[in-house]
Structures are given as structure tokens and as C-alpha cells.
Amino acid sequence: MELNNGNCDSDDDTPRLSSEAMAALREFLSQQTQTHVGADADAASSAVSLVSEDWRLSQFWYDPQTAETVSKEVLTLCDSSDSLVRVACVACPTLYAYLKKIDPNVSLQLLEYDKRFEQYGSDFTFYDYNQPEELPPELKHAFQVVVADPPYLSKECLEKVAQTISFLARPGESFLLLLTGEVQRERAAELLGMHPCCFRPQHSNKLGNEFRLFTNYDPGTRLGGWDK
């Protein structure tokens, strides 16, 4: 879960933190500093640098294994085409940063509410899921790969993010990846024709919710295959 625009009416839709993460939150609120994506000190030296998580915006960065696994899958999809593949990262700045680290030449667009990521220049587009199609017209149907991480676990949020995905994706020829809670399994299938993979995403600060990675294509043996 990567961002929150502060307009959620129900606490039930917000990702729940474990007791360990709650302790970390208290420390965070008293001492906000720049940090690195990474689960431990050994990984920090090779981890991608991001702004600090703002948990008041419900920001939770992926752990390195998750970010690298999803990045490699996206790059595999890019390599499967003979032409330039454009990738949209919807509310998942961790993935954007790791993709740029692994392959600086990949064509990426980050759609994100947090304007701290304006540091990425023309790769950044401001995005508020409450206005799912209020985006630059040149982004419409411009992407062969779209990865999205909705900010809430509500039906309403996923429906709006699905509108954004449909706006961005090339009709009939796009690979779609969705990172969200297990509770969205039926909605992901209904709205986007997506199925869960066996690979389980994790966050650097452990969340109490069970998260899944859904795709609209059969990944074969990658990502552990579809969880049937």
C-alpha cells in the first residue's frame, strides 16, 4: 500500500499495522528523517533511496525482495516486445525507483499523490484516485504494462483505480499487475479479470493485512504461477 490522499471515510479500509509496526510508527512521528528502502542494515547499502514513509498518508514501501521480484517481472514483460514498452506505476513509487535502478533506460511514468516525488521530473504525474481519469490526455491508452497499488482496501477505491488502469492501458494488448489485499480477490477478478499469483508481496514495515499480487495474464512459472 503506497499512498493515501486523506479522504477515506472508513477505518476498515485502511491497512492495519502489526504491534511491531505500531511501535515503529510512534518512533517515526517523533523523529522524521530521510531513510532508505530496505528491511535491514545489510540491505541498506544496496537498497534504493526514497523519501521517508509518511505513515499519516498510509505509505508503506515494499521490502527489497518484493520490489526486485516485481521489477524483474515488469522488465521480462518489456523484453518480450520488439518495440519500446511504456510502463505506468500507479501509486507505487518503490517499484518505480527499483525499476530505474535496475534499468535506467526503461520508459516509466509514476502516477502519485505525494508531490515529494516531483523530484522525478517528467516521469512524475500527480494522481488523485478520487479523480481517476483527470490525467494528461497523452497518457490515455499509452502503456503496455500498468502496475497499480490502490491506497485503500475498499470496493470504491478499487473501482476508481480500475478506471485509471483502463484509461492508461492499451486496449486488448496490455499486461496488468495489481498489488492489494487478499480481500480484493473477487473484485479484482470482476473488475479487471485478474487472478492472484503464489508470490506474496511484503512491506518493509510489516502490515497486518494479507497482500497479494494479481495479474491479468498467466505468468507461467514466474511469480510462483497463478494460485489456483
UniProtKB/TrEMBL annotation:
Lineage, top-rank taxon, reads Eukaryota
One Gene Ontology term of the biological-process aspect is: methylation
Query: Does this UniProt record's set of keywords contain DNA-binding?
Result: no
Mention one GO molecular function: nucleic acid binding
Annotated PANTHER family: EEF1A LYSINE METHYLTRANSFERASE 1
The record's family statement is: Belongs to the class I-like SAM-binding methyltransferase superfamily. EFM5 family.
What functional role does this protein have? S-adenosyl-L-methionine-dependent protein-lysine N-methyltransferase that methylates elongation factor 1-alpha.
Protein name per its UniProtKB record: Protein-lysine N-methyltransferase PVL29_009639
Per the UniProt record, the lineage of the source organism begins with: Eukaryota, Viridiplantae, Streptophyta, Embryophyta, Tracheophyta
